[in-house]
Amino acid sequence: MIRAVTRLFPHGLAGRIILLLISTIIIANLIALLVLGFQQQRFDKHASEDRQIERIVALIPAMQAVDDQVRQIIAKDATSRFARVQVEGTPLLEQTATDSRSEYIAQVLTDTLGLEDVRVAIVERVTSKGPPKPKGHNVSKKVIAVTTPLTARNGQQEWLNIVTSAAAPRKDRFDAKPFFTVLGLSLLCVLGVSIMLAGQLTKPLAQLSQAAEAAGRGDRTARVPEGGPREMRKAAQAFNAMQAEISQFDAERVRMLAAVGHDLRTPMTSLRIRAEMLDDDSQREAMVRTLDEMTVMADGLVTYAKEGQEGEKMIPLVLGPQLTQICADRGVPCDAELDALVRGRRVGLGRAFGNLIDNALRYGSEAAVTLRTDGQNAIVTIKDDGPGIPPDQLDAMFQPFTRGDHSRSLETGGAGLGLAISRTIILAHGGKITLENLPEGGLQARVSLPLEKC
């Protein structure tokens, strides 16, 4: 049940804002309906009491002006199923009740009639309709009791005792049509306003999210428009400043690496010339071999630095044909889906996959490449039949100047920068690269690149 509700709950910020506003309007209208219903009941009750008070105000002066016989006739005519009027020798009430409503009615009658002795009390009267009912099941309702002295006739004091109740409550059913009409119009207005508001609020967030994803792929030119609410402007300014600082840092790092690799070539060339002039063949060959290894390392350092530059633009790229051509140039079998579309740099991806295939051929006698898609990513696997890598060193192989063999001999070639360069390129495309040893022997490099959305 909870999972079903969670699936129905909007995942986007705009949907949640709209749901919140609609829920608030519905709850507010329901509360207003309850309050209005309660107030209507109170209004009906007070209106009924006011009508009874008006009858009493009209009745008392008439009673005061006539004799005893006429008083009895008027009392009989004024008695109804809602009121009982009697002229008696004893008062029904000894004093006005202390509740605020009784005191209010007494004050109104006193001020209106100019009488000094008007007693009022709101009491509960128990009635039982139909056959006798068990104790506690009788109907109880509140009535207004009024007592006031009448002008004495023939030397005998008489009292006007009135017991009146409100009219029966209305049995009309609640008309829901106006309520639901108002509720529907409110929801339509709120829905329109909330869609506009949610769009304005979420657009800067969507732009920030897209720029952050691009930055995660290595795009240092990604920027966010500095507009919208104050908080979003500050977030955009902070992101843009961070991008500028990272871009400057990367540029300095690239320049430093390129300068180091380039500057190393001159002294190594000079040393090679001197080494070749040595008379001792054994020393000359050893020094030349060492200098050749240093030259490979310097060239690899320059290449590694250049891969950090962003001169090539990202374009939609069909990966299958390019990967097939790279494999054909190296004589490696390739089983590729030809319609896998990614967004990338052709030269950069060519270098990355070329390095991985060269690495597989360098440490194994055979290699095989496959390209598949899973709906979201293009997955490239490069397998070899080499000796593999110890499990505790798999992650370290992506670090610069790290090699699978520690001899650094020119027979296997390289300076330990091929995998580092490939990893830099793949990460810049928003992809992932992993190494794993195969159960049957050999090593597998697995590259995952996000597919381009058509």
From TrEMBL:
User: What residue stretches are annotated with the Histidine kinase domain?
Assistant: 259-453
Name the Pfam families for this protein.
Answer: HAMP (PF00672), HATPase_c (PF02518), HisKA (PF00512)
**Keyword Transmembrane belongs to the record:** yes
- Identify its membrane topology class: Multi-pass membrane protein
> Which stretches make up the HAMP domain?
199-251
Gene Ontology cellular component list: plasma membrane
Q: What is its EC number?
A: 2.7.13.3
Q: InterPro entries, per this entry? A: 2C_sensor_his_kinase, HAMP_dom, HATPase_C_sf, HATPase_dom, His_kinase_dom, HisK_dim/P_dom, HisK_dim/P_sf, Sig_transdc_His_kin-like_C
Q: Name one GO molecular function term.
A: phosphorelay sensor kinase activity
UniProt keyword list: ATP-binding, Cell inner membrane, Cell membrane, Kinase, Membrane, Nucleotide-binding, Phosphoprotein, Transferase, Transmembrane, Transmembrane helix, Two-component regulatory system
What is the name attached to this protein's record?
A: histidine kinase
Organism of this sequence: Sulfitobacter undariae
